[in-house]
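## retry 2 of 3
previous attempt timed out at serialization; input unchanged, resubmitting
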Amino acid sequence: MEQGAHFQQSPNPKSQISNLKSIYPPPPLPEQQQIVSEIERRFSVVEQIEGIVDQSLKQAERLRQSILKKAFEGKLVPQDPNDEPAEKLLERIKIDKAKQTNKNKIKSVRIGMYE
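## retry succeeded, writing output
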C-alpha cells in the first residue's frame, strides 16, 4: 500500500495525527523515556561545550589585549639598543619627504615677448 494514500487533505489536524500514528505507531513508553533521557543528556553536554567555548573566547580576547598592550609598550620583542629613536626616524622621514617635494615641483618658465 502506498504511504501517500493514507494522508488525505483534512482541515482537522487531529485526524492527520491519528493517520500518522496508524502508519508509524509510537514506541512503547519505556523506550520513549529512554529517548527523552538520552536527548536531555546530550543537551547537557551541549551546554557544557557552550560554556567552554564562551570561556575560551573571553580568554582569547584577554590574550589579544595583553599582546597589543605589550606591543605598544615595546615589550613584545627584545629591543635593539642600536635602533634609532622613533622621533629621529620621523624627523628623517619628514626631511626626505620635503626634499622629494622640492625635486618634484614644476618650475614656471616665461615664454614670450614680455620677459
